[in-house]
Amino acid sequence: MTPIDKLLPLLPNVIARGDEWLSECPSCDKKRRTLVISEDANKTILLHCYRGCRAIDVVQAVGLKLSDLFEQKDERRMSARELAVHRRRTKLTRVEACLNTIGYEADVIDFAIKDIESGAPRDAMLARMRIAKSRIHEAVQEMK
């Protein structure tokens, strides 16, 4: 069973949209489809909640672990070459996910700054920028 086959049945009100899926986020418990689910080339699941929920909170809300988002390969049955390629791809996937997070959160900060400059209420924007800052720091730590 692939990671996507494990996750999708556990999510509420899933609909397909091109090569991704939309669902209500089980973490923030809103009745709107704020969660985007997609797969990268290595069949790793990528999650993005537009209300700001972290991937770990989403998977825990449905009883899974973050490791369930990755296709599990039996390294004991791989040749030395296959093992080296697998480990390199796994590391690149993790780094790519971290860079995607950093890029997205930088965009959030940019939009928040523009909103604040245009006179939008500051409190909500500042709270979201603090979350973005925290996620950027988490992504940097994950890449080390």
Helix/strand order: HEEEEHHH
Strand content: 5-15%
Largest sheet: 4 strands, antiparallel
| DSSP summary: helix tally | 4
Based on helices, strands and strand pairing, what is the structural class? Answer: alpha+beta
User: How far is it from the N-terminal to the C-terminal residue, by CA?
Assistant: 31 Å
What shape does the CA trace take?
globular
Low-pLDDT stretches? none
* Structure summary, number of beta strands: 4
- Radius of gyration (Å): 17 Å
What does this structure look like?
The mean pLDDT is 85. A hairpin with a 5-residue loop joins β3 (35-39) and β4 (45-49). 50% of the residues lie in helices and 12% in strands. It starts with a helix and ends with a helix. The protein has helices spanning 3-7, 55-61, 80-117, 122-143; strands at 15-17, 20-23, 35-39, 45-49. By secondary structure, the protein is an alpha+beta fold. It is built from four helices and four strands; from the N terminus they run αββββααα. A four-stranded antiparallel sheet has the order 1-2-3-4, with no helix packed on it. α3 packs antiparallel against α4. The longest helix has 38 residues, at 80-117. The protein folds into two domains: 1-72, no CATH class; 73-144, no CATH class.
Chain-wise SSE layout:
Elements: H1 3-7, E1 15-17, E2 20-23, E3 35-39, E4 45-49, H2 55-61, H3 80-117, H4 122-143
Helix pairs in contact: 3-4
Quick description:
This protein is of the alpha+beta class and 144 residues long.
Characteristics of this structure?
4 strands; alpha+beta; 4 helices; 144 residues; 2 domains
